[in-house]
Amino acid sequence: MPRLVHDTSAILDAAVRLLAAGSADAITIASVIREAGVSSGSVYHRFPNRAALLAAVWNRAVQRFHNELYPLFGDEPVDAAAALGRRTVSWCRANPADARVLLAGLGSFEPAAWPAESRSLREADQARWDKHIRRLVKDLKAATGRETAEVLLVVVDLPYAAVRRYLAINREIPASLEGIVERLIRSMLTSAAPPAPECA
């Protein structure tokens, strides 16, 4: 007889393991019941359908990641950008399962089918995150003379690309990558900005 688990995290952990072994398509109510070794009632009591389960997996991973990084936005802009890059790498290295959830992308979790409450949670967290990023980009543009696209490439895309190559093939992220990403971000933001293109 399957054991009863009253910890929602244990159920979500089982769902994340299924994703790590395949894709978000592998996350079903039945497969989570088997993976977690719990009764169907334990799962359905918390997640009445697959959409609610997928929503909880995504929202938990994103909120864990964002909550880790929010305190870093208060630093001087370049310091904040460097710290965010370094912490992104260290968080992904320490939490590879949740990092793979984020790597799969929101679309893999079928957000259009989510319960209204889950969509509202996601939208509120995304709005808060976007507000922090917009403020940082504005401050970095003022401090460095860089354009928006260049700042986003350095601050957002670079750390993502650095960890993606390891997460995509289930390889452990090396500890040295944290310092590499931090140095690259500082170097790119503090080097002389290129001259604006001349108008024809």
Automatic annotation (TrEMBL):
Keyword DNA-binding belongs to the record: yes
HTH tetR-type domain boundaries: 5-65
Organism: Amycolatopsis pigmentata
Gene3D superfamilies: Tetracycline Repressor, domain 2
Entry annotated with the keyword Transcription regulation: yes
SUPFAM superfamilies: Homeodomain-like (SSF46689)
InterPro entries, per database record: Homeodomain-like_sf, HTH-type_TetR-like_transc_reg, HTH_TetR
Name this protein carries in UniProt: TetR/AcrR family transcriptional regulator
Keyword annotations of the record: DNA-binding, Transcription, Transcription regulation
UniProt DNA-binding region: 28-47
